[in-house]
Amino acid sequence: MSADLTRRLAVARGDEPADVVVRGGRVLSVFTREWLEVDIAIVDGWIAGFGDYDGREVVDAGGRHVVPGFIDAHMHLESTKLLPDEFARLVLPLGTTAVVLDPHELANVLGTDGVHWLLDACEGLPLDFYFMASSSIPASEFESPRRPLKSGDLESLLRRRRVLGLAEMMNFPGVIHADERELDKLRLAEGVQVDGHAPGVLGKQLNAYAAAGIRSDHEALTPDEGRERLRNGMWLLIREASMARNLQALLPLVREFGTNSAPTTGTPRTSPRTATSMGWSAKRSRPASRWKTPSCSRRSTRRRGTASGTSARSRPGTRPTCSSSRTSNGSSPS
What residues does 292 pair with on adjacent strands? Predict the structure, then answer.
């Protein structure tokens, strides 16, 4: 690690050539919302710096826009009917470099054995797979899972390296009315992300749901519903997928509050085709990713996407993707 870091710093200073330099693109800084005409220096799979660099290999971005890899904040891989390696093969060229999975459909059928299998199956793939521990197995008394997942089951999942927190708390009435079984799950998840699922919940009921420690929700359908979630300090995940298209309805919130206050996007129960169809990404903390080869997709960006500054935060160690320098309507991004 020390030798790798020493070399990375030497490349960052410009004292040594980078392994790869991506040149000739417009690089998005999501911190300042600027398009920068700079080189990207890559060494040992890490982004060492932006500026004027020399490299052993030069990739010509050809005037395209270079942005951090997109992160899909919430999805159910099982609904794609694909194994992880095939899913990765399809979405990586579209710019998605990480996904956060809630495998509750698999957990319904195979329990924790199935989830641990999926975690193992995702290791070593070029797409970064992260997980949330499925909190609602069963989601209601009308479902018949292999067996209910209890606190001990969730604890075993939360110990896995790629599990970031507790998946959508679908039993929102139980949370709001302090059902001890739901509270046990929330106590187990103290200090980690807890995702929500609260369709139609407003007012004091939503206050109680947020007070339980729920930190996000993807069930807002109108600006008023979304605004109330933001006021409660929750991240708003905007669905744009095959089973729900809420982006147009909730886009006024992005214009009103900007993209740093909370709005993010996810594609629950989506197909690979729609996983990054809007060109948006979701903000979610994750370990820095290694990146071996620049991937420049020729797919056009969309004005609502990379140009709006909603891409995942970029820092040394994250993966850039390249996209066409023209938006879908033929104009340059603003």
Answer: none
Q: If we measure between CA atoms, which residue out of 275, 306, 292 comes closest to residue 65?
A: 306
Distances (CA, A) of 39 to 48, 56, 60, 64, 285: 11, 13, 10, 12, 26
Q: For domain 2-67+292-323, is the CATH number 2.30.40.10?
A: yes
3-state secondary structure of 188: helix
SS3 163: strand
Between the CA of residue 261 and those of 170, 235, 310, what are the distances in Å?
24, 8, 11
pLDDT tens across the length of the chain (334 residues): 566 899 999 999 999 999 999 999 999 998 888 999 999 999 998 999 999 999 999 999 999 999 989 999 999 999 999 999 999 999 999 999 999 999 999 999 999 999 999 999 999 999 999 999 999 998 777 878 888 888 889 999 999 999 999 999 999 999 999 999 999 999 999 889 999 999 999 999 999 999 999 999 999 999 999 999 999 999 999 998 888 899 999 999 998 887 765 444 444 333 332 222 223 333 332 333 333 333 333 232 222 232 222 333 333 344 444 433 322 333 333 3
Tokens of 120: 């193992």
E strand spans, the chain: 18-23, 26-29, 34-36, 39-43, 46-51, 55-60, 65-68, 70-75, 96-101, 128-133, 163-169, 193-196, 216-217, 235-239, 264-266, 295-296, 320-323
Domain boundaries of the chain, sorted by first residue: 2-67+292-323, 68-274
Q: What is the pTM of this model?
A: 0.74
- In contact, 17 and 11? CB cutoff 8 Å: yes
Q: ∠ at Cα 193 (187, 194), nearest 5°?
A: 60
**Contact residues for 179 (Cβ-Cβ < 8 A; gap 6+):** 171, 173
Domain 68-274 has CATH 3.40.50.300: no
CB proximity list for 13: less than 8 A, separation 6 or greater: none
- Compute CA 242 distance to the chain's CA centroid, rounded to the nearest angstrom: 18
